[in-house]
Amino acid sequence: MSAVTSRRGATRRPALLRISNALTGLAFVAPALVGLLALYIVPLISTFVTSFTKTGPFGGSTFVGADNYLSLFLDAEFWTALRNSLIFTAIVLLGVPIAIVLAALINSVKRFRTTYRVLFFLPVVTLPVAVGMVWRYIYNGDFGVINQALAAFGIDGPSWVADPDVAIYAVAIVGIWSSLGTNIIILGAGIQAISQDLFEASSLDGAGSIRQFFAITLPLLSPSVFLVSVLSVISSLQMFDLIYVMIGRGSPAEQGSQTVVYLFFQKAFVEYDRGYGAAIAIVLLVIIMAVTALQFRLQRKWVFYG
Amino acid sequence: MLVVAAAAMVFPFLWQLLTALKTVAESRAVPPVFFPSDLTVDAFARFFDSVPVVGMVGVSAAALVIRVGGQLLICSLAAYGFARMTFPGRNVLFGLFLIMLMAPSQLFLIAQFDLMKSLGLLDTIPAIALPGIFSAFGTFLLRQAFMSVPKEFEEAARLDGANAFQIFWRVMLPMVGPTLAALTVLTALYSWNDLLWPLIITSSKENMTLPVGLATLQGQYGTDYPTLMAGSLLASLPLIAVFIALQRQFFAGIASSGLKG
Known about the structure:
The complex is a heterodimer of chains A (306) and B (261).
Chain A: H1 2-11, H2 14-50, E1 53-55, E2 61-63, H3 67-73, H4 76-108, H5 113-125, H6 128-138, H7 145-152, H8 167-192, H9 196-204, H10 209-237, H11 241-246, H12 254-257, H13 260-270, H14 274-302
Antiparallel strand pairs in A: 1-2
Chain B: H1 2-20, H2 24-27, H3 42-50, H4 53-84, H5 90-102, H6 106-118, H7 125-133, H8 136-147, H9 152-159, H10 164-175, H11 177-193, H12 196-201, H13 210-220, H14 225-245, H15 247-257
Helix pairs in contact in B: 1-14, 3-14, 4-7, 4-8, 4-11, 5-8, 9-10, 11-15, 13-14
């Protein structure tokens, strides 16, 4: 493009042409910019402003300074929600090593490779609401299959998602189950990008497949592992659907098991306490940024860019 | 080990299907009944009786079409602009797009709700689809794709007298077909599965999406597991079918992005 423009521009009206090119460029991005502005940038500013206000019972809002944030930090409910979000995220992160091993195994089998990928990916394309409903049934304390299987070994299982002490862990296991597929695809692409020569050379030197996994696959895969971990954390901290379906609304475990986003939904859209909801959203942003920044800091110690 | 893990992935789906074909009594039997003693599709009938299934499918499908179509058009236009045009503020504007990639969606929900309210769009299908049309991720992915197309194609078209939009539409868009396909399936997935935003923005039975309808169903029929399993199975099937037909596009989309939800 630049070659053509400059050739023509050199002969006549370069300034006019440049303006017309700029206008064409702006015309291409304009529809997206309007949407970005109206649906994202303005709402972001508005959420920030709202977080310093209190909505009256008849609409209208008054500026209350940092009151929402102060009551948030004094609210035991918020700390429980934050603790649950962090537990959920930590457990879903434990799924990453599982995904690494499974991705390596899938890559090493000769037959049915695609079949395995499809099977592990099924939960990703299934409605999270549907996933939650099926697992809620499986977890049922009285006649769910898990407790019936445990009973066969004489173990009296807990009521899982109806037990506030256990519920968040039970949901997090479903979180692992649902995220394995995505992680396996990303990690599998990473494994396939590793040069085959390295594996051949090391087998000539007598390295077995376990040794190869730890000496070659794992270090060279570390950038993909890092990516998968960052994405898992960001999406886990925003998890809503599973909690809403498996624990929410009247379950005995609802109070003790809600997450930050569930609390946000309750405050902003069920109790219509918008200022408080906005404050939760802002705090969530800060938490996500802090955890992601921490991950980027820690990566220097373990991610190997060959 | 792979086989055991794969079995653990499949078991819930199998259990869902088997339970959907059982009677309520059998679904609560202790010890569990694995294969329904007499197959019944009553649960499916109850599902159709209790929620407006056809309407829900229609709403979900309409929102999906608007969101996917709108996103492909608007994001590819913007992506082409960012990839190949020079205009003042280009890098700053693109940077703004990228920042939105990082931010959690909850930050925007309250004000997006207010905007829809002031536009008179509360509880409508366009409102379900609108925010998802503007995707930082889609713009970014397509920009990368446009940047990898050699410039010679555009120059040849320009010498033939094509204007900027013709070049974009006839020459460049077909060149990024695989990226458009990957973006289509991912956006369709997010649109079909989304719960939080439709839950907030819709209130009437006529405008319930499938996820919202299922969640409602669970509220009403919390212990009728065969009906819940029948509903969740039917609601998931369309996308599972599309996935099995278009695996390559799904995997390409996920691998290039790694973005989820």
